[in-house]
Amino acid sequence: MKYYFLLIACVLGRLTLQAQENLIINTEGRNSVSLNGTWSYIIDPYDTGFYDYRFNERSEDDLGAYWNKPVLKKKTDWTEHGYNDTYTLEVPGDWNSQDPIFTYYEGAVWYQRTFDKPAIAANEQVYLYFGAVNYEAHVYLNGKKLGMHKGGFTPFNFKIPADLLQDTDNYLVVRVDNRRHKDEVPTVNTDWCNYGGITRDVKLLVMPEYFIKQYHIQLDQQQDIVKAKKKKRFQVSGWVKLNEVMASGKVHVEIPELKVDKEFEVTGDSVKIAFEVKKMQLWDTETPKLYNVSLAVNDEKAITDKIGFRKIEVEGDKILLNGDEVFLRGICIHEEIPQDARRATSKKDAEQIFGYVKDLHANMVRLAHYPHNEYMPRTADSLGILVWTEIPVYWTIDFENDEVLEKATNQLEEMVARDRNRASVIIWSVGNETPRSDARNTFMSTLAKRAKKLDDSRLISAALEVHYNAGTNFVDDPLGAYTDIVSLNEYLGWYGGLPDACRTANWETKYNKPFFISETGAGAKGGFHDEKEMRFSEEYQKWYYEEQIQMFKTRFPENYKGLAPWILIDFRSPKRNNPVYQEGFNRKGLIDENGNKKLAFYELQKYYKEIEEKEKASKK
Ligand code: GCB
Questions:
Q1: What residues line ligand 1, using a CB cutoff of 6 Å?
Q2: In CATH, what number does 212-313 get?
Q3: Which of 578, 586, 590 to mutate to test the pocket of ligand 1 (most atoms within 8 A of CB)?
Q4: Contact at 8 Å (CB) between 376 and 415?
Q5: I need a surface site. Which of 94, 181, 323, 580 has the fewest CB within 10 A?
Q6: Which interval of the chain is the signal sequence (predicted)?
Q7: Stated pTM of the model
Q8: What's 500's DSSP letter?
Q9: What is the pLDDT of residues 73-109, one digit of tens each?
């Protein structure tokens, strides 16, 4: 009996972890009804809604379970839970920034709202989609569990059984739990705020009987892009996956501006796509051309997407975008908005953040340390900003544990599934500053290989640490053998010595691959001015950037091909407790938490403008 339960538990576990296979991508391009807005909540630090007084999991029909609506018919009936208009939270949004009782809250919160059945045709079906919930979500509708999902930064959806959907007043409850655990991804220790809640958009998707679940449309990676550009003939390839197996059907791909109108026979639940296009305008940082692509199965309504076509590759120590060498003028970003110190959630938020990026004259962002909301890569697509995106395999997670590898792999797969059609995304990163050991090397190289297998049209990287030896900074982490770009976080002049230590530092890389600085930075409290030796003054941070930039120019190896300093904007971190300069914020931002630029912003901007001008001059 015990084993029987164990088996069921394992199967359920697998089902949760395989969520990405059922993921419906590009929800913007589909028929949907938003469930964003004001939801009611119960804060439940004792998990009373989930466990009874013996701490046994409550049964589905237990009226004390917080997914069930209390039924009060007579005066003598009573309840100890309920939802009303007094206790509400906005969705999407973190709970931490919405009410002071949540500032550092970690635990369970129940979200509730009702909705009416959307208008659907006889053969249509409704899915419930979440852009992200941090960290664990249990979803219930009209007293029945739809499913659960783990992972705070990737989307998931559940099909709503037709007989569960009422015409009005569907009672939707989500138990969100953001507690940190040693065997989760990320683990207990991070340098960012563990924002809890339904942090991204929620929607109902109204889907036909057969529909395109996922697709990948891109330039064929095998073609020589320089020759293709000369001949003005480009090979496009990819695939389309359906929700169900079809005995036989047709998938229709249209790109009107390119006069592409193709049909592909499908038997089963997927089909490969390949065609040739003439005179295409490639996507790049100067002309981020996006084409309207529409995809349909049989006579169903087409879904549309805006897709850019580009080729990113590494040749020796060069990064080539469409065959031309590119130097990455990057900046790291957390998914956080200044002024409000909250999670960024909208297109407007993305535009604010990318406004600073453009102002900096950057051409690249590292979205640290987890997949950001979908508005971020989509905005980058439209602005021509290159993107590094990452899974939260951060510092010392449980590398010995196979289940943790499975959880990390699942997040990788969900990230790739959602963003593989974004031209801006050029790097999948499998983690940050993971400490070398045999177990870690196996864990991380497995992720790197998996990422490559999922998608061969991008580069793989991971932020590594330096190895000091006899006066030289060696970049020789064994994980570098599995990545296309060798990336390093270094803080010379902040965590070790003063900034002028940069004048004598020696650097060597073991790998003949592009060498990228994925972090470097120093803290400064916005508006605090003093002599440059004074830590946390804007002058210190400026000095740090001056010395670092000089070091990059004069002492870095030939294969240095870009940087993404830490970080664009100050961000909340409960680890940062200097009562004068930090007050719960990591202050390495070039912009403070009120949106004001610090002196160092202009130092980096100067460097980026200089590179940009040189590049322009060499093209003339
Ligand atoms: C790092 C981490 C980053 C931290 C940063 C810091 O190396 O990757 O998450 O926030 O240093 O400020 O120390």
A1: 191, 369, 432-433, 489, 519, 566, 586, 588
A2: 2.60.40.10
A3: 586
A4: no
A5: 580
A6: 1-19
A7: 0.96
A8: G
A9: 999 999 999 999 999 999 999 999 999 999 999 999 9
